[in-house]
């Protein structure tokens, strides 16, 4: 049974003509323990689709369901702070903070109850291949691949069931991309996460369980 479902989902901008949809009648299902890719040309609606999945936008028609509950009937702040984690192409880390401070901040925002947040943050860093020596470095002192690993660790700070990654390897070379993909696959297979990656990368698509393609 899928943890996340899109049932006959359509979307058009409020000021768009009646029949001018970004996409129409989408039926996708996502399960825990699997990695998914959403691909499509520029303008096909990938970013809009992520906004619907994360509850930042509401679909014009159809339903987005999380554990059989319709998103629009849920507490969306709680959903975004506890059930779903987001990883961005541009990392969206706070440069004035250290690596570990970025992760701990995510715990604070979600109000997750953790006895020793710094220790938990170090464990998360280790899970994405970073040692304690990276924890006290400011973000801009880390490479792009290291920053993305911190972004993934941050998204795991409150143990969400779903990880959404928006072009997470778009700024990385192929070797680093493969390392990031390995982390995502381990999260799916070993920790039963549902991983959803929006991507243009053929390499990413060749390393996932299911591909959904948006057509303009």
How would you portray this structure in words?
The protein is an alpha/beta fold. It has one domain (4-213): Rossmann fold (3-Layer(aba) Sandwich). Helices cover 34% and strands 22% of the residues. It is built from seven helices and nine strands; from the N terminus they run βββαββαβαααβαβαβ. The chain has helices at 46-53, 76-83, 99-110, 117-127, 144-155, 174-191, 202-205; strands at residues 4-11, 23-30, 35-39, 61-66, 69-70, 84-88, 162-166, 194-198, 210-213. The strands form two sheets. Strands 6-7-8-3-9 form a five-stranded parallel beta sheet, with helices on both faces. A four-stranded antiparallel beta sheet has the order 2-1-4-5, with helices on one face. The mean pLDDT is 93.
């Amino acid at each position: 049974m899928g943890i996340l479902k899109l049932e006959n989902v359509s979307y058009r901008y409020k000021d768009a003509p009646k029949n001018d949809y970004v996409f129409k009648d989408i039926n996708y299902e996502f399960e825990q323990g699997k990695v998914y890719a959403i691909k499509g040309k520029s303008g096909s609606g990938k970013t809009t689709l992520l906004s619907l999945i994360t509850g930042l936008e509401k679909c014009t028609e159809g339903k987005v369901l999380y554990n059989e509950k319709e998103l629009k009937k849920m507490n969306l702040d709680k959903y975004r702070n506890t059930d779903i984690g987001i990883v961005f192409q541009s990392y969206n880390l706070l440069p004035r903070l250290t690596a570990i401070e970025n992760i701990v901040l995510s715990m604070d925002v979600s109000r997750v109850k953790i006895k020793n947040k710094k220790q938990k943050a170090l464990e998360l860093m280790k899970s994405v291949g970073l040692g304690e020596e990276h924890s006290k470095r400011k973000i801009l002192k880390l490479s792009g691949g290291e920053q993305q690993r911190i972004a993934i660790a941050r998204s795991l700070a409150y143990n969400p069931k779903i990880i959404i990654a928006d072009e997470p390897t778009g700024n990385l070379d192929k070797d680093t991309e493969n390392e990031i993909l390995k982390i995502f696959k381990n999260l799916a297979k070993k920790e039963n996460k549902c991983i959803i990656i929006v991507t243009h990368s053929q390499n990413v698509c060749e390393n996932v369980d299911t591909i959904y393609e948006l057509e303009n």
